[in-house]
Amino acid sequence: MRTVEMKNIIIGTAGHIDHGKTALVRALTGIDTDRLNEEKRRGISIDLGFAHLQLSENVRLGLVDVPGHERFIKNMLAGVSGIDLVLLVIAADESIKPQTREHFDICMLLGIRKGMVVLTKSDLAAGDLLELARLEAGEFVRGSFLEDAPMVAVSATTGAGLDELRAELAKLAAAVPEKDASQYFRLPIDRAFAMRGFGNVVTGTLVSGTVRVDEDVELHPARKRVRVRGIQVHGAAVETAIAGQRTALNLAGIDASELARGMVLAEAGRFHPTSRIDCAFQLLPSAKPLKHRAPVHFHAGAAVVEAEIRRLTGTEPLAPGSREYVRLVLREPLLLLPGDRFILRKFSPVVTIGGGLVLDLRLESVAPRRGHSQPDRLRILETAPLLERIALLARESRYGIGMADLVARTGLLEADLRKASATAASQTSASVTVLESPQFWLLDPGWVTNQLEALHEHLKQFHRQNPLLAGVSKEELRSKHLAGAPPWLMDALLARSNTLTAEGEAVRLSSHNVTLKQDEEDAAAKIENAFRAGGLATPAVHEVLAKSGVDPTRARTLLQLMLRDRRLVRVSDELVFHASAMQSLRALLAQKKGQRFSVPEFKDWTGVSRKYAIPLLEYLDRDRITRRDGDLRAVL
Fold it and tell me: Per-residue pLDDT averaged across 454-462, rounded?
């Protein structure tokens, strides 16, 4: 049996109240999208309605019927986001009306690029009136994405024009690219309800990726994980839903009170809600000047929150018709990604004033450094190739950026980010430094150079002041130069240097070697001999250093050198033993492997007093040569 690849297209209606949008959808599909009692009583659409139509063997349409009344524009906005085609519905007997204009503005601001004009109620506008409606509609869409689009006159009452409309829809659907099912899963929720016998259900247009039954997904902005118990697409149960489908999910692990329109379901663990976005914003020519820090209603997907618009340069009002990079501060966090479209509406009167494109998210997990001016950096994020955008994010991040933050910041697939990063790193003048181990990480090459130069200078000064010390501890270098960076970053930087050498937890200049003067060599010999002669009855450290023949500072430095070279072993702050004594002790205990013993027995074996026995045993416990078990110990 031949398997048919189904193409799913989402179509949305737009137009003034009572211009026949719901009747048109019903005539096309046989489905009444007015589901609320109040809608049926008042004869108008108040909330979103949904229907579907099998246009051909391999093309299925999902239709979103939106309300036309000005009071329900926010409901209209919840449905129009994510559509592939728009049917601009204009009643032939009334022509262009206020919500015709506002809906059309919204479609253009949301970046919708395909659709058609449908002149409804053609049976009420015969002859010249219908032709006048055609002329007025053509003039209205001139210069827009609908300028050369089909225009069909129909009557939901008589059925006239419906066959022509279906034919034009088939042509348009063939030219619409399918949504990308390979991307990360995201489903903006436009309805949420509890259904007896099923539990909690949410619906929405699956804008990207796929979702499967029994998969764990994440609800934003709450960042709560839930399980997909069941899936329906156009009323039929399925195992998997893919991008472009109207989808209903039955969710487990959440209460109905925690679900609402405007929330978003996404791949678990991938993304972070944000309350600050940088974006490109277009103020409509019909709008009034928009003040810096003006309050607005922010609409994205099915969500609406209050927000404040902030200019990035200057504080003068935005001029009508202007396009500018701005920052929006949201009253509540939302899950947004670069490339998402949004609409802004005024507070009073509540009208659409503009919209734009999300370019960058201000995530708390990324600590930025100063870089380009805000307009310049947003221009790069909007127009530059991916490898340049990645390089910018790496350059701005204080200690570079890892894959998790890159994905959360861009919404792009790991494979695409790796490919672009490799290309950027391979260029003659590399714009990023790529680390693969211990994890994928991007650094700005200039920052790497500056950090290595700073470490080199630090060590140069240290060696000048402390010629007898081998180097500086990594921890000291981290606290001074990389405070707050991932702990492994120091090692990654040192691995890229030709002039710095790490030996254990100490770092030195590769050219640095400790050279002792004659009196220091003599003193070192005295110190070592004193501890060797003491054996396990080791002498006090301060007494040995006092008799070394050099000043206390140099004597202690010599002690540190011998400890580093493991000629001496520090057991506690006050006890240092010669390595030969410790080697003899290990040999003694090796002969008693598995034996249990007490402190007095240990004193008998070694001939030491309790002053030495207890610290030695604690050292042996730490070194896993012995193990304490109550009052006894066992030789391992």
Answer: 93
Tell whether the model's pLDDT for residue 46 goes beyond 60. Answer: no
- Of the residues 361, 382, 401, which one is the last residue of a structural domain? 361
The answer on 208 and 161 residing in a single domain is no
DSSP state of 302: T
| Residue whose structure tokens are 């309350």 | 275
Domain identity same for 327 and 411: no
Q: Residue 437 falls within a domain, yes or no? A: no
Count the Cβ atoms, other than its own, within 10 Å of residue 636: 13
Domain-located, residue 435: no
CA 360-361-364 angle, 5° bins: 145
Q: Which domain holds residue 406?
A: 374-428
> What's the CATH number where 141 sits?
3.40.50.300
- Is pLDDT at 76 greater than 60 in this prediction? no
Verify that 217 and 304 share a domain, yes or no: no
Buried b (16+ CB within 10 A) or exposed e, 503-522: eeebbbbeebebeeeeebee
- Positive or negative CA dihedral for 36, 39, 45, 47? negative
Q: Are 253 and 226 in contact (CB under 8 A)?
A: yes
Q: Read off the tokens for 88.
A: 């601009």
131 and 190 share one domain: no
Helix segments in 466-570, DSSP class H? 474-481, 489-495, 518-534, 541-546, 552-564
Residue where the block lists tokens 């949008």:
21
Q: Please, what's the b/e burial string for 220-243 (b: 16 or more CB within 10 A of its CB; e: otherwise)?
A: bbeeeebebbbbbbbeeeeeebbb
User: Model confidence over 598-607: pLDDT tens digits?
Assistant: 999 999 999 9
SS in 3 state form for 339-381? CCEEEEECCCCCCEEEEEEEEEECCCCCCECCCCCHHHHHHHH
CA separation for the pair 132, 215 (Å, rounded): 54
Q: What value does the CA radius of gyration of the chain take, rounded to a whole number of Å?
A: 36
Looking at the fold, whether 529 and 631 belong to one and the same domain comes out as yes
